[in-house]
From TrEMBL:
The lineage of its organism: Bacteria, Bacillati, Bacillota, Clostridia, Eubacteriales. Signal peptide: none annotated. Residues 1-88 form the B12-binding N-terminal domain. The keyword Metal-binding applies. Residues 88-212 form the B12-binding domain. GO terms for biological process: homocysteine metabolic process; tetrahydrofolate metabolic process. InterPro entries: Cbl-bd_cap, Cobalamin-bd, Cobalamin-bd_sf, Met_Synthase/Corrinoid, Meth_synthase_dom. It comes from Acetobacterium woodii (strain ATCC 29683 / DSM 1030 / JCM 2381 / KCTC 1655 / WB1). Keywords: Cobalt, Metal-binding. Belongs to the methylamine corrinoid protein family. SUPFAM superfamilies: Cobalamin (vitamin B12)-binding domain (SSF52242), Methionine synthase domain (SSF47644). One of its GO terms (molecular function) is methionine synthase activity. GO terms for cellular component: cytosol. This is Corrinoid protein MttC19. Pfam families: B12-binding, B12-binding_2.
Length: 212
């Protein structure tokens, strides 16, 4: 019988074909989709992270792990999306200027979408001016910024400053997150809220929407 540990191992090994087979078996066996995500796919990336840090895994291998996680996610995603739900609000999310990390952002988007929000994904390496022009075009309720590098976290501040300059800062709530980000960073970059992970980000969005 397929196990969640096998899913994690496939992510570590970058085994796309393997992960697809095992995830399909787990879905057929009625394993809760969020278990497949959290205890299988994300758990695998949590094994990869320290190996990358210690130099035991290199960029191409980490990319393969990320690709494997995404392929597994593709199979699970339809199970947690309720497309008939009316939208709770519009949320725009991007990884800040200079930062190419998108695994956490994509997970976040999946969770937020599945809880009933409409999400506009700006992708990675999003320039300050792009956030502003996209706010003008799409008029979201909430703008989320993700940063995974200490070298890009201050781009959150410059992006908020650009929103002020562009006259859109008071039209949106701004939320932030990512590995180097902490709650006290909210005041530093003049954002409105911080979430540690994808689940708490959904709760944060709900609170923000209630305050609009
Ligand atoms: Co990068 N990388 N990386 N990397 N990478 C880190 C972040 C690092 C901590 C690893 C390390 O050395 N210890 C380190 C940063 C160190 C620092 O800044 N202090 C690092 C580095 C240095 C780099 C490069 C500079 C390496 C190099 O080239 N020399 C380079 C930078 C490229 C760039 O962005 N310009 C780089 C490249 C890469 C890869 C391309 C190989 C790959 C990214 C692939 C991709 O994203 N498509 C990669 C990866 C995978 C990692 C680690 C190993 C894993 C990140 C991840 O996906 N985690 C990471 C180590 C680590 O985090 N411990 C590391 C799984 C994911 C589910 O979690 O992203 O944390 P996470 O997202 C969570 C929360 O943070 C939160 O919710 C998410 C889901 O629960 N969250 C939010 C995230 N955004 C949020 C926004 C919110 C709210 C919550 O509101 C809007």
């Amino acid at each position: 019988m397929a196990t969640l540990e096998q899913v994690s191992q496939c992510v570590v090994d970058g085994d796309v074909a393997g992960v697809q087979g095992i995830v399909k078996q787990l879905i057929d066996a009625k394993t809760p989709p969020m278990d497949i995500i959290n205890k299988g796919l994300v758990a695998g990336m949590n094994i990869v992270a320290p190996l990358f840090k210690s130099g035991e895994m290199f960029v191409p291998e980490v990319m393969e792990s990320a690709e494997t996680m995404n392929k597994g996610m593709e199979l699970v995603k339809p199970l947690i999306l309720d497309t008939d739900m009316t939208t709770k609000g519009k949320i725009m999310i991007g990884t800040v200027n200079g930062d190419l990390h998108d695994i956490g952002k994509n997970l976040l988007i999946m969770m937020i979408e599945s809880s009933g929000y409409t999400v506009i994904d700006l992708g990675v390496d999003v320039k300050e001016e792009t956030f502003v022009s996209a706010i003008k075009e799409h008029q979201p309720d909430i703008v989320g910024m993700s940063s995974m590098l200490t070298t890009t976290m201050m781009k959150m501040e410059s992006t908020v400053a650009e929103m002020v300059k562009g006259g859109v800062r008071d039209k949106v709530k701004v939320i932030i997150g990512g590995a180097p980000i902490s709650p006290d960073f909210v005041d530093e970059v003049k954002a409105d809220g911080y979430a540690e992970d994808a689940s708490t980000a959904v709760e944060l969005c709900d609170r923000m929407m209630a305050s609009i």
